[in-house]
């Protein structure tokens, strides 16, 4: 695995964990929610921009994306 891929995986894990904390979810449930409502896809597609933001801003973006795609948390 290349370094950029490792960085993307680490960033995604950090975002999932922070999202889980904010929503008081188990990290696995947070991952499934983010995957179902396209948050994981959003992180992959927008890594170059998102990883330059604060983690709080990234989690805000995830909330918006998931809500836009039918999420209700």
Q: Count of helices?
A: 5
How many β-strand runs? 0
Q: Which residue ranges are poorly predicted, with pLDDT under 50 across at least 5 consecutive positions?
A: none
Q: Averaging pLDDT over every residue, what do you get?
A: 96
Shape: globular
How much strand content do the residues show? under 5%
N→C terminal distance: 34 Å
Tell me which oligomeric state these chains represent: single chain
What keywords describe this structure?
73 residues, mainly alpha, 0% strand
Summarize, please:
By secondary structure, the protein is mainly α. 77% of the residues lie in helices and 0% in strands.
Description:
The chain has 73 residues and is mostly helical. Helix content is 77%, strand content 0%. Helix 1 crosses helix 2, helix 1 (3-23) crosses helix 5 and helix 3 (39-45) crosses helix 5 (55-68). 21% of the residues are buried. The model has no long low-confidence stretch (mean pLDDT 96).
Layout of secondary structure:
Layout (H helix, E strand, L loop, with lengths): L2 H21 L3 H10 L2 H7 L1 H4 L4 H14 L5
Helix pairs in contact: 1-2, 1-5, 3-5
């Amino acid at each position: 695995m290349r370094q950029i891929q490792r960085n993307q995986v680490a960033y995604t894990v950090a975002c999932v964990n922070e999202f889980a904390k904010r929503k008081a979810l188990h990290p696995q449930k947070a991952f499934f929610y983010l995957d179902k409502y396209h948050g994981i896809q959003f992180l992959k597609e927008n890594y170059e921009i998102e990883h330059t933001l604060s983690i709080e801003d990234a989690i805000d973006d995830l909330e918006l994306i998931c809500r836009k795609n039918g999420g209700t948390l």
